[in-house]
Amino acid sequence: MEKRVHSIVEELSPTLLKWRRDFHRYAESGWVEFRTASIVASTLQEWGFEVKAGREVIKPEARMGVPSEAFLRQQEQRALSQGAVAEWLPRLSGGFTGVVGILDSGRPGPTVAFRVDMDALDLQESADADHLPAAEGFASVNANMMHACGHDAHTAIGLGLAYVLSRMKDDLRGRVKLIFQPAEEGVRGARSMVEAGVVDDVDLFFACHVGTGVPLGEVVCGADRYLATTKIDVTYRGVASHAGGHPEDGKNALLAAASAVLNLHAISRHSGGNSRINVGVLHAGSGRNIIPNHAAFKLETRGDTSEVNEYILSRAMDVIHGAAAMYGVQAEIDIVGKADSSSPSPELLPYIRAQASKVAGVTSIVDTRNASGSEDATYMMERVKQRGGLASYLVFGTTLAAGHHNEKFDIDERVLGIGVQTLALCALCAGDR
């Protein structure tokens, strides 16, 4: 079986590169992946998948960090002008850009799900001549949107996996669900798909990422210890007044925010594991002689476990409300992203190792490696495990031109074939577990 998979992927290799570079050129950030999602949906349907999209796979009230309606409308029109598949846009409209493809073999077997993310970062890509996408003409054409984390590669791997399975449907047992998730950056999208029931019938779940400091040719069967996290936007609204004539009439939103920021970074740590808090953005005031009536800041909390993160989050809320009360301003708090911690199912790791060992180009296989940062596929992993299934998060190593979230990020594209082959074997051999 692995020889046939290898042959199909070799044949597909130029197309994998074409897909990845196309998605890179037309990078789309969270909840506005209209072009990407429409192409994915149309392609899956063409290959015989049952396709669910939009509100079928996303629970509206569970979305986080959704852009304004005006921005969503503008981006939908932008996507249409850049080649989005028009017939799919009504189902994706309003930022419901999730897609799930289902392939049923018609034979008894497990339901196996694979999740890939599609969104880009809010980052302006480098135009320097030493940046390969710029030199080769596939740097992002969309301002302040760049695939600087590898999600273009993930989407291409997902389509490559779909193609292989459509060609080898007779070798499948059970069902395969391919989950193309929007808005992973800022950990905003997975929860809405989980609450829509997308993984409730899943027996085996696989998510994946390229890079993350892992060398080309290495496969990590289960990334572990992703940090639980919460992303928060805070706005303070006070009262403006003349700073010289009547300062006592004002309610200073800037001072409230400054007090909050300093005290947020002073929150005591927790003995249950590592914790993090960071305020990364702060804007306030309008003039030197005006008591500032408006301040806004963005922060995140993280913890080794969901319990540690909840402790930091609870203390952060106390600080935010306390600073507002101290300066007599109103606080508006918006949770714009959230993810839990999760660990791979130990029982699944030998199975992944066995499949990866059959793949050309794989030179090293590691059972687990501690992850850095946070990842909202953990929502899906935890739901699958809670319902009796097994879940893991694979990492496919690749050489990077620059670190993740850098304007010169780029990958060694040989990782695409390694990822497709490994995941295809995980699907095709699942009935024999």
Summarize the structure.
By secondary structure, the chain is an alpha/beta fold.
Q: Can you describe this structure?
A:
This protein has helices at 2-25, 34-46, 69-81, 89-92, 132-136, 151-167, 190-195, 253-264, 306-327, 349-356, 377-386, 415-428, and strands at residues 50-53, 99-104, 111-117, 175-181, 204-210, 218-224, 228-237, 275-284, 294-303, 330-339, 364-370, 390-396. It is an alpha/beta fold. The protein has an eight-stranded mixed beta sheet, sandwiched between helices. The chain has a four-stranded antiparallel beta sheet with strand order 8-9-7-10. Helix 6 (151-167) packs across helix 12, helix 8 packs antiparallel against helix 9 and helix 10 (349-356) packs across helix 12 (415-428).
Topology readout:
Layout: H1 2-25, H2 34-46, E1 50-53, H3 69-81, H4 89-92, E2 99-104, E3 111-117, H5 132-136, H6 151-167, E4 175-181, H7 190-195, E5 204-210, E6 218-224, E7 228-237, H8 253-264, E8 275-284, E9 294-303, H9 306-327, E10 330-339, H10 349-356, E11 364-370, H11 377-386, E12 390-396, H12 415-428
Parallel strand pairs: 3-4, 3-5, 5-12, 6-11
Antiparallel strand pairs: 1-2, 2-4, 6-12, 7-9, 7-10, 8-9
Helix pairs in contact: 1-6, 1-12, 6-12, 8-9, 10-12
